[in-house]
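Fold it.
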Amino acid sequence: MQTADWRPRLESLLDDFRRRQADAARSGDKPDRIEAARAWHAADGDLDAFRAAARDYLAAKDHFVIVNYLRKAIGQQTGGHISPLAAYDAKVDRFLILDVARYKYPPVWVKASDLFDAMNTTDAVNDNKTRGYVLVAKTGTVTPGATATGTATPAP
């Protein structure tokens, strides 16, 4: 499914997730909560800022990174795709993508520069804006200091 802009779609999914959490909480369940989600187009920053933000989020408990990238740019089939990152290996400067289409693509280690280049591609159905990434944290967690701009992020 393609949309005109993936950020509004993310907001819609987060709103739905929060509604479901509220419903679960009213019924006595104690679900995890999302505290913050910030999205960036790759053109909003650079490789170093992305690497720092993603590395710091992956190292922090209850923090997650979701990337929107062009598969063709990393040697897979054409088309944009969204998947979570699972790890960063600083020794080889690679991120581990846990592809949500596991039946077709197993987890893969991708060079940070290749991943950033795959995110820094324009999407015709998104007003030719670049793809990018989303940083997500659970409620009550301390947000790492690095951001897409390389500046400190105040805790929510």
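Residues 146-156 have pLDDT under 50 and may be disordered.
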